[in-house]
Design brief:
Elements: H1 11-47, H2 54-75, H3 91-126, H4 138-167
Helix pairs in contact: 1-2, 1-4, 2-4, 3-4
């Protein structure tokens, strides 16, 4: 059972979990669209002509989808962990390590959100476009920045939960 199904996650944490889950599902739809685009391009290449700009759309779609999954991984605690190091640790130590991981996730989300927003501004200012389709690259940054903001929110939720557990109140 994932943490999004926890009965204790109500109010703002529950709303954040629901929002993050919906965003991840939207990322899955984008990824399914990328797969469909590639199938159409391959079939089109065998029959007549491949889809122009398929490589560009694949790059953008996969990047957007990958970022959309980050907040979900944080809120459901599905990030990669090495449980072999904590198998013998007490519940309180595991909670403390999870707290530290939430702090790192929040710092990571904040740092990358800041730098990606600067990158988006640069892409927009320079007018950089893709080679074939000529669509502005900065547009791909918008859903990525939303994903990073949701990652920060998800990190705050897990940080609060982990702080409570590390203090021994849970």
């Amino acid at each position: 059972m994932t943490d999004t199904a926890r009965p204790g996650r109500r109010g703002l944490p529950g709303a954040v979990a629901a929002l993050v889950t919906g965003w991840a599902l939207l990322g899955g739809v984008v990824l399914a669209g990328v797969v469909l685009l590639n199938v159409l391009s391959v079939l089109g290449g065998m029959i007549a002509q491949p889809v122009p700009g398929d490589f560009e759309m694949t790059q953008v779609g996969v990047a957007v989808a990958a970022f959309a999954f980050l907040p979900y991984c944080q809120i459901t605690r599905a990030n990669v962990s090495a449980d072999i190091f904590t198998m013998g640790a007490s519940a309180r130590w595991v909670a403390r390590l999870r707290f530290a991981a939430s702090v790192v996730a929040l710092a990571f989300a904040g740092l990358v959100l800041w730098r990606m927003s600067e990158g988006m501004a640069d892409q927009r200012d320079y007018g950089y476009t893709t080679a074939i389709l000529q669509f502005p690259v900065w547009l791909a940054f918008v859903p990525i920045l939303v994903s990073l903001a949701l990652l920060a929110l998800a990190s705050l939720v897990t940080l609060a939960e982990d702080a409570t557990a590390a203090a021994g109140d849970e």
